[in-house]
Fold this protein.
Amino acid sequence: MGYQLFSGCTIPSRLGGYRDSTLAVLEAFGVDVGSESKFNCCGYPLRNTDREIYLLSSARNLALAEKSGSDILVMCKCCFGSFKHAQNALNQDLQLRDEVNAILSREGLEYRGVARVTHILSFLRHEVGLEAIRQRVVRPLAGVKAGAQYGCHMLRPSHINELNDAGVPEFFDLLLSAIGVESLDYKRKFDCCGAPLNGINSVLSKKMTLRKLEAIREMGGSLVATGCPYCHLQFAGAVEEGDALPRPVVYPQLLGLAMGLSPESLGIEAADAETLAIALDGADVRQSM
């Protein structure tokens, strides 16, 4: 089966560079992800308020992928978690699946549970592979120290998300190491970024975010590498101009820079390029920026 890229809602509207860099990197590795124009929201915003509509939203996307004979390649970890929870629910409760399919049948769709859901970081680690990544690196980010932000929805609960190393995950650290980055084993590494509390208890939310950033800074890190738009935006909102906290950057942009791809093709705008150049001080990749 091929893949269809699922961008979700937040990435196209607020973090377009994540999608641009993902597409550029996948193209460089010869991966065709087709079109995603018919997808709707994954249902995540309604997961805890209207379970039926949430499941229907997720199931429709999965059914669309199945109809096209594709698996789903996801960039957002909240979307990833939503799809995995929906698959688990629909595969365990056949009556629920029948009810969902009765609605989907109006569009000629059916959820059968055959499409795989893979996050882009997992895809790069297991499908592309570390050796293939190393071979494509032309400007290793030697001397750069970063903290990997794994995110909650990709790791927990492990029996649903089906990540064998979820207890002590290392796939993100390995991806960073493959491009020359020193991935830091910092305090609170697997803690939540604080985003779910933003707007509910914003003081605590920011405190959780700053604790992670300060832990990375204490170990000499200049970047926090992300693979989740919510985590990325949470970190970006906590960093104020002129302070010395690590800057967030999505992994596909780092990977693309190490592969020698242009900042423009990776969706890196002028202001971001300047910030990255400072954070990547000492890395050969600065020459391309």
The first strand starts at residue 2 and ends at 6.
